[in-house]
Amino acid sequence: MPLSNSTPKDYVVLTTWRTGSTWLMDRLNSVPGVQGHVELFYHLPRRSPPKAGCNDYPRYVERTKAGIRPWSVMKYLDGVYSRKEAIGFKLMYEHLRAYPEILWFIVKRRLRVIHLVRDNHLDVVISSQLASTSGTWHRTRDE
């Protein structure tokens, strides 16, 4: 991530559910000169204002009307990364499976990859159960 004397670096956070990725994106977005977008390739349009991360860029499904892949995905990502700040977004494994051309974009643009994993699988199960029971699936920096 950018430091005071370095050039901002674009990035992608590669992860899966229940790893703390929403919290991480929220924290990244709070750094001056860094934008951390949440799941831009989620398969449904947003239904309510997001709680975390930078969300001023529409999701792929909201922005693209039956474009020809892979070109529509490349054009969309070019738009995401056209800003001057260090830009990044959360990319879930299942999104990469659905849109494998994103990998080519990552390599072509030489994006930094933050691979976020949760080593203890029991923690993932417990986190999922707690979220299901409490109805709170995401925490932000303010919570």
* DSSP summary: helix tally: 6
* Mean pLDDT figure: 82
How many domains make up the coordinates?
1
Task: Characterize the biggest β-sheet.
Answer: 4 strands, parallel
Write out the strand line-up for the largest beta sheet, numbering strands in chain order: 2-3-1-4
Query: Which of globular, elongated, flat, extended, rod-shaped describes the shape?
Result: globular
Low-confidence stretches: none
Q: End-to-end span in angstroms? A: 24 Å
* Beta-strand residue percentage: 5-15%
Percent helix, as a range, is 25-40%
Element-by-element helix/strand order: EHEHHEHHEH
Q: Work out the radius of gyration.
A: 15 Å
Number of beta-strand segments: 4
- Structural category is alpha/beta
Task: Please explain how this structure is put together.
This protein is α/β, with parallel strands linked by helices and 143 residues long. Helix content is 36%, strand content 14%. The protein has helices at residues 21-29, 60-63, 71-80, 93-98, 101-109, 121-134; strands at residues 11-15, 34-37, 86-92, 112-115. A 4-stranded parallel sheet has the order 2-3-1-4.
